[in-house]
Design goal:
Order of helices and strands: HHHHHHHHHHHHH
Strand content: under 5%
Distance between the termini: 60 Å
Helix content: 55-70%
Number of helices: 13
Largest sheet: none
Structural class: mainly alpha
Length: 229
Amino acid sequence: MKQRYLSLLEDLYLKNADPAKAIPMKKYMKERFEFFGITSVPRKDIYREFFKEKGLPDNKEISNIIKELWEKPQREYQYFAIFLLGKMIRQLDKDHISLFELMITNRSWWDTVDAIASNLVGPVLAGDKNIIPEITGKWMGSGNMWLQRTSLLFQLKYKNGTDKKLLFSLIKELSEREEFFIRKAIGWALREYSKTSPDSVSEFIANIKMSPLSVKEGMKIIVKSSSQI
């Protein structure tokens, strides 16, 4: 089933491949992945054509399809996997968390991890908030930087629904870590939440030791707003 479902996608990717564009795309991703050389706009056209003919798969097939896509060398396949899950987000629940974990911890880089965090993990956990402590506790204790980054970022779109206590607790736990991707994520999470609660973010940053990068990123909007007064 998965091979039949994905056969058109492979045909469309091969038809639209641009080796000249694949070179800088691969370089931008630090030579970590192969590319067909298909940028975002033509990818959307491919998705449109694909779904017009194939539609969405049966929910019981989705895990196998995603795993198949995740094993393929060209990065465009992983982008399609995330887009496909996004289209099926209302059919996803806590039973798909293990699938997200597989995606986060394999072929890991910011381009996929960040999209999974805010567009997939975020909505699913918002629909079942009782499991958030268990999931974030597991991910924070895993030692995996990308799962920890996801814990910091899954609430990016929650706005007033953000669990401030949880967010600040996770940041405190990671505040002195040296990894760039953790420090950047701390700043990004704080910056986004500052759109909703600038005073609490300002107070939090003033009273915790964290990297200059995290502080700079976290205070960007607050500083900009202050300069306009």
